[in-house]
Design a protein that fits this description.
The protein is of the alpha/beta class and about 140 residues long. The chain contains four helices and six strands, in the order ββααβαβαββ. The chain has helices at about 35-45, 50-55, 70-75, 95-105, and strands at about 10-20, 25-30, 55-60, 80-85, 110, 125-130. It has a six-stranded mixed β-sheet. The longest helix has 10 residues, at about 95-105.
Amino acid sequence: MAALDMTLLPLVEVQFVANAHNEWVALHLHIDASDPEPALQWLFGSPDLLAAVAPLDCVLQLASVAPLTPSVLKLLPPNRVILAIDAGALADSGAARQLDALHEHGYRVLLDGAPPVDAPRPAHSAVSLDCSGSA
């Protein structure tokens, strides 16, 4: 039997997201890759992923908006994928405008963490903060 080449498979951390009634409503996906674009194409390129987890949505955690190329966005249906972008990415030129454009195309955008003070902010987004630590 041929050995499986693990370099071709992206490492994906999956956590379940529950609502206030302890009902699963989404899967939180974090791709551990230096270049997440090929991993996103591999993961979402198969129609089986979203069919397998239906009716759950996917919360896709990304460090920046850079991997969200047109070819990747074709694979991410706006009604099934929530984009959770590290708030520090707003320091990148044009990131806020790109997030606004994604929202206009139907994507739900979640900023993960406190946005940088001087960075432009997208017009339509929610902010996620970890409040479990001590002050």
